[in-house]
Amino acid sequence: AQSVAQPEDQVNVAEGNPLTVKCTYSVSGNPYLFWYVQYPNRGLQFLLKYITGDNLVKGSYGFEAEFNKSQTSFHLKKPSALVSDSALYFCAVRDVDTGRRALTFGSGTRLQVQP
Amino acid sequence: DAGVIQSPRHEVTEMGQEVTLRCKPISGHNSLFWYRQTMMRGLELLIYFNNNVPIDDSGMPEDRFSAKMPNASFSTLKIQPSEPRDSAVYFCASSLGGLEANYGYTFGSGTRLTVV
Fold first, then answer.
1. Contact B34, B75 (CB under 8 A)
2. d(CA B97, CA A42)
3. Cis-peptide, bond into residue B81, ω within 30° of zero
4. Which residues of B touch A108 (CB under 8 A)?
5. Is the pLDDT of residue B99 over 60?
6. CB-nearest partner of B102 from A43, A45, A51
7. Model pLDDT for residues B43-98, shown as the tens digit of each residue
8. Does any CB of chain A come closer than 8 Å to the CB of residue B34?
């Protein structure tokens, strides 16, 4: 079975400060990992993914994430937060080795960036 | 491409009525997913199709829920009869499979269902 944990319901950060949104995963094989963002009354939008290769993945809007296999983590980061980054963020995983195409999503973390 | 298109955007219905949600995936995508989002349970996978064939429907709550994909450009999710606990936002997503694909999804804007 595949699962994702996002331990923080909400993260608060001041504009201009670095931000981190945490994600850990569990799969029996190798993972494909994703981050999505959801703005109010909108569908989820793809931010970035880890498939293979470099552990540091860069995505949209200045976000990046680091894949750490030993810690089974895929934390989302941004060097300098913007008020417009305030949204709901979801981490998702797919177990490559099972052949199952469906993603399992975490419970989401609400990011609040204060001006 | 217009993206994944869902209709209606909002649906309010009375308990016991039949509800049909519709989804048009991105042209060329061969996998389609139905998710339900609630405050209590987050994002739950209901069912997914690959090449129009249902692959995993283990997330469908009960027999009141059914989903079809008669062709590559259209899918429906039906609830009959509807109950207040079905109130949620229902998302459709599509993706392109295959070895070269990134397996990421494109989501529709969702249908907000309220059953009173």
1. yes
2. 24
3. yes
4. 42-43
5. no
6. A51
7. 999 999 989 999 888 889 889 999 999 999 999 999 999 999 999 999 999 988 65
8. no
